[in-house]
Amino acid sequence: MSNSNLFLSIGKPIKNEYGRVIGKVASFALTPNGKFESVYVEFGDGQFTKQPMESIKFNGAEITFVSKIKNQSGVLCDHIPLIWRKDDALKDLVANKKITNEVYQDLHNSFSNVLTQLKKEAQVMIDESVIEIERCNEEITSLSYAVANLEIEHEIGKVDDENYRQAFALLQDTLRRAQAEKNDFEVTKSKLSSVLLGDQTSTSAKPLTTKVYAETVTNAATKLPEPPVVVYVKEIGKSGI
Prior knowledge:
This protein is α+β, with helices and mostly antiparallel strands. It folds into 2 domains: 3-66, SH3 type barrels, CATH 2.30.30; 69-238, no CATH class. The protein has helices at residues 68-95, 101-155, 161-196, 210-222, 233-238; strands at 13-15, 21-30, 36-43, 48-52, 56-59, 62-65. The strands form 2 sheets. A 4-stranded antiparallel sheet has the order 1-2-3-4, with no helix packed on it. A two-stranded antiparallel ribbon has the order 5-6. Strand 1 and strand 2 form a beta hairpin.
C-alpha cells in the first residue's frame, strides 16, 4: 500500500504472523516533511501503543504485526557475526603491517564495544523468547484439555456431531497456530544462542542474512505435524467433571 493510502487502514484489523487478530490501526505519526514514522495501535485488550513503522506490514487490505523478537533477532544474527569478521580482518591487517598498531587498537576497541552491546541485546531477546515459549506451552496445554473435554462430551452424547466438528476444527486450527508460534520462538532462541556461543560453522561460510533467517523460521513452521489429541482422563476426573 502506498504511503498516500495508509490512512485508509485506520480502523482496520491487525493480525499477527499466525493470522490472529490482535488489534486495529488507530492513527499514524508523521515527521514534519510528511514521512510516516510510527503507527498507533489499539490492541485487543484495550492497550494503546505507538509502534515503529517496521513493526507493521501493509499488504493491500492485509495488515500484519511483526514480532519485535523475531525482527530484532534477525538483525542481531546478521550484525554479531559481521562484527566478528571485521575484527578478524583487522587482526590480519595489523599482522601484515597494512595498518599501524594504534589504528588497530582504536578500531578493535570500537568493535569490542559494539559487540558487547549487541550481545546484551541478544541475551534480552533470548530471555524474551523463553517467556514466549512458556506462554505458548501454557496455551497448548490449555487447548489440549479443551480438546479432551470436547471429545468426552461428544462421546457421551452431550455435543452433537455438527457442533463437535465445528468446535474440533476451531481448536485444531488454534493448536496449529500456537505450535507454529512456539516453533518460531524456539528457532529464534536457538540461533541467538548459537551466535552468542560463537558457533559460526554456517555463518563463516555463508553469512546469515535476514532473508535466510526468515526462510528458516517459515520452513520450520510449515513442517509442523498435526497436533495430537490427548485425553487426560485422570486430570479431568480430579476437576469434578
